Amino acid sequence: MNPLSTPHDAHAPPLRRWPQTGYPAMLTATAAWHVLVLGAWLLAPRAWPWWLAAIFANHAVFTVAGLLPRTSLLGPNWTRLPAGGRNADAIALTIDDGPDPVVTPQVLDLLDALGVRATFFCIGEKARRCPELAREIVARGHALKNHSQVHVHTFSVTFPGALRREIDAAQRTLEELSGERPMFFRAPACATSSSNPCCASSICGSPHGRGAATTRASAIRRSSREGCLTVSRHATFCCCTTATPR
């Protein structure tokens, strides 16, 4: 069994990994803003350009907040590894959008050569096309997690029911291929998922259970500065010396 993943017991009640804090204040304020603008439009319909501009401005602020990797405006945000001896000198290395039949084997060989373990956030359909790679990721000691079933770029504006179906489909696919249930989800196209109740209802686990792979910071090139968070299209480095989730 992969020590970096958690087996799923169909008979055990799922425990929430992420705290349920309700809707974030910014989302509530956005809903209130829309109601206020609608009321203003009913009272002064001739000023509709101003009301429309107010809606666009609100959406622009919301979009920018969703693209900021360290913000907590849209809900709790994990920017540091949890405190603990294992994480004292560790980083979390995550790789998105696979498995790829050309790139993934090379990445796996490189990680083996460095003695590094990583977390692969995989797309369900790609894993279905390359089932041997999905199994190889787990067999080599890495963690396999959920990056949606088809990776649609309109994920952030998808209706709740479709969101749940998309995440659940990837859960079923990845669990079927690897034998282990993914305990983390990363939304496609830089969307924020930490405060989305549809995401939380599909990805459940113990608050302190095993999930994301960590490795010693010394195993990564020194260009990765300790204490920083750098996000790229295909990998996320969360480098920290004092692991304090925010």
Could you characterize the architecture of this molecule?
- The protein is 37% helix and 12% strand.
- The protein has helices at 25-43, 48-67, 103-114, 124-129, 131-139, 160-178, 197-202, and strands spanning 90-98, 119-122, 143-146, 214-216, 229-231, 235-240.
- Strands 1, 2, 3, 4, 5 and 6 form a six-stranded mixed sheet that branches.
- Mean pLDDT is 74; it is low at 1-10, 194-212 and 214-246.
Strand content: 5-15%
Helical content stands at 25-40%
Mean pLDDT: 74
Give the helix tally.
7
Question: Distance between termini?
Answer: 31 Å
Low-pLDDT residue spans: 1-10, 194-212, 214-246
Write a compact overview of the structure shown.
With 246 residues, the chain is α/β, with parallel strands linked by helices. It is built from seven helices and six strands; from the N terminus they run ααβαβααβααβββ.
Topology at a glance:
Elements: H1 25-43, H2 48-67, E1 90-98, H3 103-114, E2 119-122, H4 124-129, H5 131-139, E3 143-146, H6 160-178, H7 197-202, E4 214-216, E5 229-231, E6 235-240
Helix pairs in contact: 1-2
